[in-house]
Amino acid sequence: MTAGTSKDAVKAALTTQALETPSWAYGNSGTRFKVFAQPGVPRTTREKLDDAARVHAHTGVAPTVALHIPWDRVDDYGALADHARERGLRLGAINANVFQDDDYRLGSVTNPDPAVRRKAVDHLLECVDIMDATGSKDLKLWFSDGTNYPGQDDLRDRQDRLAEALRTVYDRLGDDQRMLLEYKLFEPAFYATDVPDWGTAYAHCLKLGPKAQVVVDTGHHAPGTNIEFIVATLLREGRLGGFDFNSRFYADDDLMVGAADPFQLFRIMYEVVRGGGFTADVAFMLDQCHNIEAKIPAIIRSVMNVQEATAKALLVDAGALAAAQREGDVLAANGVLMDAYNTDVRPLLGEVREELGLAPDPLGAYDRSGWQQQIVEERVGGVQAGWGA
Ligand code: PSV
Ligand code: MN
Questions:
Q1: H helix and E strand count, the chain
Q2: pTM here?
Q3: How far apart are CA 350 and CA 371, in angstroms?
Q4: Residue 169: what pLDDT?
Q5: In order of start, what are the domains of the chain with their CATH numbers?
Q6: Among 139, 159, 194, 349, which has the minimal tally of Cβ within 10 Å of its Cβ?
Q7: What residues flank ligand 1, with Cβ below 6 Å?
């Protein structure tokens, strides 16, 4: 798919788009000040999948669900995959979690203590075992590792430890499995983060081999960072493994993608289309938390926001843009992009949904379905899922 194709081609591309929703977005979440519980929230991973199935049913483009281990640990992953399949879903990326144990106070795979490093690597290897059982293709790695004070630990030694751990895990991957390495500017470490930026992630991936790819979490950058440039560069180098989509006003806010800056999302999706990433092996995942808003409609809204940005990106008139760029016509070139961005693509997406046999308005359809009332009535008792559960 290239930019600027016919309306039918745009619709066909939108029909095949696949967005992965995160299991943790269906559970309770909050800030470090307060987690607000909501009625009807899932108690188990199976119930999270039941909710995810509603998102897919109303949008038609959310067929996979990312799991977070241990938040989604179960006894039988094959049975969990069956539960997903029976609801028209598949299990997606396995997200490792080496950031919530006391042992990780000074880091996980970069910890100065070899026993802690071993524990962290064992967890990552366990995640690959889980991938074997679920049929998941991607292992998503985010490390909270870093230091709070200058001199606290040796920055270079920590990179060596990181490289060694990544190598061990990389060598365990099957032929069809990938390692997606996520970077984050800061938090929870405040002085130095061990994988703070795409350059560090890219350098590690390059050494490891082609199955190691970089993940761009849109919330993990300094204000003003040109994220679409990073996307273009990683695609050009064949190292863009996927996205963790969300949006931010200040730090890692994890708000609904496209809510804070829909124009940025359009610019990112334009570079994805331009770089061939729309049809390549790029995983389009959400990584969000819905702290105060209703969760399932918020996830449906997020999926719709990505679809709208994608539709606009696909509508860019590539021929006119290239001609204006060749002629050095700055205003005309900018105008071509803005014309696409300013197109109201909601009717087009309504048609796409109707062609998939869906209602054109997923949020209205969800409201009418009665699912929200049903889960509020039925999910009584037990422990609601949330951070750490
Ligand atoms: C870290 O902030 C992160 O973006 C990683 O992807 C984690 O796995 C995820 O958030 C947990 O919500
Ligand atoms: Mn993320």
A1: 14, 10
A2: 0.97
A3: 22
A4: 99
A5: 7-378 (3.20.20.150)
A6: 159
A7: 24, 95, 142, 182, 184, 217, 244, 252, 287
